[in-house]
Amino acid sequence: MKLYDFDGMFDEKLGAYIQKHASEHTESEWEDIIPRMYAKFGDTPIKAIGATPRKFYAAISDADLIKCLKAHLKQQISVSEFLCEAIEGRNLTDLLIPLLDGAPSEREYAVNLIGADDKVIKKYLKMLVESTDEDFKSRLADCIKEKADLVTEEALGLYASGADKEYMLEIMSRSVVRDERIFDILIGEFRRDDENVPMHASYLAAYGDERALPYLLDKIDGEGVTFIEYQELKYAIEALGGEYTKERDFSNDPYYEIIKAHSVSSADVFGAGGLNGVINGDITGGQGNAEK
Fold first, then answer.
1. How confident is the model at residue 264, as a pLDDT?
2. How far apart, in whole angstroms, are the C-alpha atoms of residue 120 and residue 143?
3. How confident is the model at residue 289 (pLDDT cuts 50, 70, 90)?
4. Could you tell me which residues are beta bridge partners of residue 46?
5. Residue 263, pLDDT score
6. Is the pLDDT of residue 55 over 70?
7. Helix ranges, the chain (H)
8. Does position 200 have pLDDT exceeding 50, yes or no?
9. Which of 125, 218, 222, 227 could cross-link with 256 by S-S, CB 3.0 to 4.6 Å?
């Protein structure tokens, strides 16, 4: 199977385009332009291939799409968004599942492409406990949280054993089906762990059981609460339908001063307007690099 480095082709054309037009746009404008150029490139015919990148992958069978992904990863050829789009546009979970036992790069792509499918949630939990890559563990946890009720017993067991305790708390807090064991654990950790009040308050907010309100209200009213803790506690209280209106003075709180000193309005961050012009055929017809 012939592999095409579509990202390499795009980068080649992009470099020439930027060199020619660099002074015409600000950095924030380029951040808007480049993704649109990439999307346009996906529908641009490539003479050496006889198809656009999207049409090239659209013509490939399901099994060959997965083979193509594995070959790109093995040969360290960039995996384009167009290949990922083609896989995501079809129901290929069963073909992707074997990659979860493959090389690290295969596992990562498989998780991103499968997402939170019921078929793999228990597998994800096992992978999370076995992995030492925190970024990967976090990605797995994000998927598991979407279907947390599928692994309630497993998460409770792992929590009891001390395995990845914080991940288990985070996962259990997303359970939809009410379970007294989970509520008791979340309350217990909230009351016990004074070093991570904001995090445990967020778990109670996510779990959504209003019986946690008295504990949250008691904690937020404490004299030693910091500004960051106050903010998360207040959010949790409001998320559970409660209210805390007592005025608090955080003028001597170092976190409050830091946040106040560095705060900027959303207008300052997002004020740059998008471009009104339409990008025309500046990236077309490239032949780029091909690999076998």
1. 44
2. 10
3. very low
4. 51
5. 62
6. yes
7. 6-21, 27-41, 53-58, 62-74, 81-88, 93-96, 104-114, 121-130, 134-146, 152-161, 165-172, 180-192, 197-207, 213-220, 227-239, 254-262, 266-270
8. yes
9. 227
Residue 257: pLDDT band with limits 50, 70, 90: confident
| Backbone φ, ψ for residue 99 (5° rounding) | -70, -20
Other residues' Cβ atoms within 10 Å of the Cβ of residue 272: 12
CA distances from 188 to 118, 148, 181, 192, 272 (A): 30, 20, 10, 6, 47
Q: What are the residue ranges of helices labelled H in 193-248?
A: 197-207, 213-220, 227-239
Instruction: Report the C-alpha gap between 132 and 141 in whole angstroms.
Output: 13
74 sits in the region (left: phi over 0; alpha: psi -120 to 50; else beta) called alpha
Asked whether the beta carbons of 108 and 99 are under 8 A apart, the reply is no
- How deeply is 159 buried, as exposed, middle or buried, from its count of CB atoms within 10 A (0-12, 13-18, 19+)? buried
Taking the C-alpha atoms of residue 44 and residue 40, their distance in angstroms, rounded to an integer, is 7
**Does residue 236 contact residue 220 with C-beta atoms inside 8 Å?**
no
Report the distance separating Cα 115 and Cα 109, nearest Å. Answer: 10
Length of the chain: 292
Instruction: Give residue-wise pLDDT tens across range 225-254.
Output: 999 999 999 999 999 999 999 988 888 888
Q: Two tokens at 139?
A: 């990605």
For 146-180, write each residue's pLDDT tens digit: 999 999 999 999 999 999 999 999 999 999 999 99
